[in-house]
Design goal:
By secondary structure, the chain is of the alpha/beta class. It has a domain at 9-137 and 160-187 and 239-247: Rossmann fold (3-Layer(aba) Sandwich), CATH 3.40.50. It is 35% helix and 22% strand. It has helices spanning 12-17, 24-33, 49-55, 68-73, 111-121, 140-153, 162-166, 192-201, 203-212, 221-228, and strands spanning 39-43, 60-65, 80-84, 97-103, 122-132, 177-179, 185-190, 235-240, 242-247. It is elongated and about 55 Å long. The two termini are 28 Å apart.
Length: 249
Amino acid sequence: MTSFEDHFSGHAADYARYRPDYPAALFEFLAGLAPDRRRAWDCATGNGQAALGLASHFEAVVATDASVRQIQEAARRDGVHYAVASAEESPLEDEAIALVTAAQALHWFDRARFWGEVRRVLVCGGAVAVWSYHGFHVTPEVEAVIHRYYKDVVGRYWPPGRGIVEQGYRALEFPFAEETPPTFLLEKRWDLAALVGYLRTWSASQRYQAEKGSDPLLFVREELAEAWGPPERIRPFRWDLDLRVGRKV
């Protein structure tokens, strides 16, 4: 397994708790791209969120992640088989997979090697889907505070590759026969405590905490509370999903 910079093991449980849910329609669409429903590979599975969604449509889902802690914390379900492995070196056989997915993870990979691995494991006509999301829509007042936190407080602590996410992966090479997907949204209903939990899972927040030894959210705590109102108030959140899909031909 190749070495990698692990931004998530230290808060794997929080990552599983404070992440937006992918819509069921996304997995229905992805399954429809696959030439068969036998096996899918969810690469860099994290808490297993995408793997569980795929499990409703495939006989078996292989879910890998380079983080041992993430694999330990990942949700279990029949048909989902977890393994510790990097994106660039999977334990899969040649031409054994009908669909490969990478959710909110492509920007961490050595892409040239990952694309080669995808081509190796996919059957002819097999599909690949990569997606990301960033920012969210809630209220203008809350968004303004989060924007300042994102840029001014933890901005310099984002790992290299964050700009790729901000661009929605659109500028990246994609060496497959690309197709145009429908639009999907991520939605969540959170109180203030859940929002704060989500912000703490950001890799930039974690890097700030590790380097400074203090919580960067203290810089916006009062401002965020004022923008939110009563902390128990539930507000709807929406993220736009940036999705690219294609086939091995």
